[in-house]
Specification:
With 220 residues, the chain is of the alpha/beta class. Helix content is 42%, strand content 20%. The chain is built from eight helices and seven strands; from the N terminus they run αααβαβαβαβαβαββ. It has a seven-stranded mixed sheet, with helices on both faces. α2 packs antiparallel against α5. The longest helix is centred in the middle third of the chain and has 14 residues.
């Protein structure tokens, strides 16, 4: 037994993947293609994608949101876990990066589930609220510009149904959250967000040390 989460060596990480990762061929191809990019480190890990897919299935999600698509691995992971009538509203500002994902979404047969909205995510979320979609979404994933995490969260909380789940990435920010000399804008924003949700009695929460830290929030 252990009183805290284990440190994961490269060998132990490889073992975890070898006995648990059930990644489709298309997911693997997209992940490998993204890894070759100069900014490939922005991609979520495969076990995190699989974990989010399992979450989607556990809560019976049909309508989902994503803020921050990058090359579309997280969108693909969620879409594969959704029923055929499932739907992902995927928000991003980059046509360059999301165009990579589109090819793999099509190849995986889930492109019809993903509604890509190019433009500032806050505008898209406001449009959904104005369209009367408050309380109609089951699941959301936030993985975009850190300084807007708080704003994304507040809007998504309105769009989520009671019992719906929000997953928020990068909440440990490479360990910078505990380094007092790190006072850059992103680190400060993540610290503030972590405190905000910790004190928010509208949700249940758990911070899981998977990837770069993933906070799960369930709307009461």
């Amino acid at each position: 037994m252990s009183r805290k989460t284990l440190n994961i060596s490269d060998e132990l990480y490889d073992y975890i993947l070898s006995v648990s990762l059930r990644e489709s061929e298309v997911q693997q191809q997209l992940r490998e293609a993204t890894r070759e990019l100069p900014v490939g480190g922005m991609q979520i890990s495969p076990e995190q994608g699989q974990f989010m897919g399992l979450l989607v299935q556990l809560i019976g999600a049909v309508r989902t949101l994503e803020v921050g698509v990058f090359t579309g691995y997280s969108s693909l992971s969620v879409a594969l876990a959704l029923p055929d009538e499932g739907h992902v509203v995927a928000c991003d500002v980059s046509e360059e990066w999301t165009s990579i994902g589109k090819r793999y979404w099509q190849e995986a047969g889930v492109a019809h589930k993903i509604d890509l909205r190019l433009g500032p995510a806050l505008d898209t979320l406001d449009q959904l609220l104005q369209a009367g979609q408050e309380g109609t979404y089951d699941f959301a994933f936030i993985d975009a510009d850190k300084t807007n995490y708080s704003h994304y969260y507040e809007r998504i909380l309105q769009l989520l149904r009671p019992g719906g789940v929000i997953a928020v990435d990068n909440v440990l920010w490479g360990g910078s959250v505990i380094e007092h000399d790190k006072q850059d804008e992103d680190t400060v924003a993540i610290r503030a967000f972590n405190q905000q949700v910790y004190q928010d009695d509208r949700v249940h929460l758990s911070l899981i040390p998977i990837g770069d830290g993933l906070t799960l929030l369930r709307k009461k």
